[in-house]
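>> received
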Amino acid sequence: MADCTDGSHGILVYDIGTTSVKSAIFDSSGSLRVSASVPYKTSYPRPGWSEQDPEQFWEAAVKGTREILSSPGAVPVEVIGLTGHMNGCLPVDAKGRAAYPELIHSDSRSGSQCARILDALGEDRLYAETGNRTDEHLSLPKMLWLKDEQREAFNRTAWFLNSKDYLRFKLTGVLGITDFSDASLTGAFNIGKREWSLDIINCLGLSPARFPEPRRSIERGGALSKDAAALLGLPAGIPVSTGGGDAACATRGSGLTGGGPLGSAQAASGGQAYVSVGSSAWASMLAPAPVFDAGRRIQNFFDLDGEQCNICGTVQSAGIALDWALGILAEEAQGPEQYRRIEEELDTLEPGSEGIMFLPYLMGERTPHWDAAARGVFAGLSLSSKRSHMLRSVYEGIAFALKEIVDIYGDLHMPIDTFTLLGGGIRSPFWRKLICDIIGIPMLIHPFPTHAIALGAAMAAGVSVGIWNNLNDAVRSVNFKAEEMFPDPGKSRSYEKFFILYRNMYKHLKPFFDELAEVRKIVNGG
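>> returned
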């Protein structure tokens, strides 16, 4: 990307992911000046449980900031932006101390609480009010689990936050605020009225006082405190934006304005979507209002402007499923060079992986099934099956899961002209070409795919201090020079046959998944 000119504004962004915090500085042309990624652990204490220590978010942000500020590419910071994983339940006390580890997006321990929510309110009513179905991955049932199973921690809780809200507190000392994107994916937010649903909250015996004030992501959320500034090596008083959830930031960071990607042939016709492939994966489009799906397969959550809506479908386990498979099947330590060698071998195989198919439901699945009991499956193994066939089937299975989401947009009469691909998984030429062939739609490769989420957060932060007038102006300021990719018609036809089989696998295995879940409860409480 281009160097910034003299006097450009520096926008520092923290992007809290499943595996690390990325710290990055962008300039006012949207160019990435410098970045660092500091990893941390996710705890999986029992099947379906996923926890993180939020203090590690802060420790990683401090370490990453000091690293990038000492880099030659750094520029003076004018504003700080925030983004992080969504669907979390991070309970903190009145002083901002975590009362319990954050139950992150992939945690699915709250099945009985979901059943209680449905019994009390009914799925139709909940979907009509929130724009989302009730599911273990949302924040609301996790709050009820905390109330049921960790009463001492629940009683100490003053606020239920998401990851970026906690980091904002550590930066500013300000508690009790969130943004519309995160609020609208809790399961307790009235998406039509743009406010917390007191009916839902009171009916379930929760206190509205524990739900933070929702704001637009493009508003200021405080200023950098003296204590935080000293730790980070920055001047005190730097404005900190409210920030947004990672999927909402990715939408703007991918170049969407509600139409096509700027600078592309599709800009005038609209129909632009993006796919992000990281630890999880999702596809999303922007719409002026919520889109209600009769099958309740798609999620609705607010854009960074607090007005438009993201229409989104999520694959729960994407890159994390691939990492798991390589950890199980690979014969050497994982790393970029190993990935490259393996993918070169896999690229020589024919579509369909010699008849092996993989369901990537290692942590249950969201779109379209919304089933926490679902689990990963290899099907079609034989004595002639090789490691390479199994590994390729994992790549294909995740891409098939994305295609299931894409087909839903067709059902909803939301035609897609082209996709923009982003996320860490898109750095692999093999995987992105496979995704393009399976989905069968022309695609654009984001010019900096691993920082598109952070770029969206930088746009929101820039708008909060007047660097840009609005989000569309921010998008227009960025030069989205993207590589185009087109599907191979022959491979797409071959994949269509396998996709029909893939789509039927869950239907046939659903009774087994349910029975297995009951056995897990008896054997180990999972």
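>> The first helix runs from residue 54 to 69.
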